[in-house]
Amino acid sequence: MSLPVLPLSLPALATVGILAFLRYWNDFSFALVFISDPYLKTVPLSLSIFATGYSTDSKLTMAAMALAVIPTIIAYLAFQEQVMKGMTAGAVKG
C-alpha cells in the first residue's frame, strides 16, 4: 500500500511556491545586471528610476511602492491558509 504523498505535501509545496514567487517578484540585482529592455524590467527595478544620485521624489516613490505591493498582498491573502499549514507542518512533535 502506498502513501498519498502529494496531498500530504501540498501545504509545503504551496509555501515554497509562494515564497519563490515573492523572491522573484522582488528581484533587483539579477534584473539590474541582465535586463536592458525597459519593457522587461521588474517592479523594483522600475521603482529605482524615481531615485537619482542627487534627489528622490518621495511622494511619487511611495505612491508607486503602494501600488507595487498590491499583488504580493493579494497572493498572500489568497494562499494564507496554505502558508500557515506549510510553516507549521514540520513544527509538530509527536
Features:
about 90 residues; about 65% helix; mainly alpha
Task: Give the quaternary arrangement of the chains.
Answer: single chain
Residue share in helices? 55-70%
Shape field: elongated
Structural class: mainly alpha
Rg = 19 Å
Q: Report the sheet with the most strands, covering strand number, pairing sense and barrel closure.
A: none
Number of helices: 6
Mean residue pLDDT: 80
Distance between the termini: 23 Å
Number of strands: 0
What's the gist of this structure?
This protein has about 90 residues and is an all-alpha fold. About 65% of the residues lie in helices and about 0% in strands.
What are the SSEs and their pairings?
Blueprint: H1 5-25, H2 29-34, H3 43-47, H4 58-68, H5 70-78, H6 80-89
Question: What would you note in describing this structure?
Answer:
The protein has 94 residues and is mostly helical. 66% of the residues lie in helices and 0% in strands. It is elongated, with a radius of gyration of 19 Å. It is found in: Cell membrane. InterPro entries: MetI-like_sf. Keywords: Cell membrane, Membrane, Transmembrane, Transmembrane helix, Transport. The chain crosses the membrane at residues 6-25, 60-79.
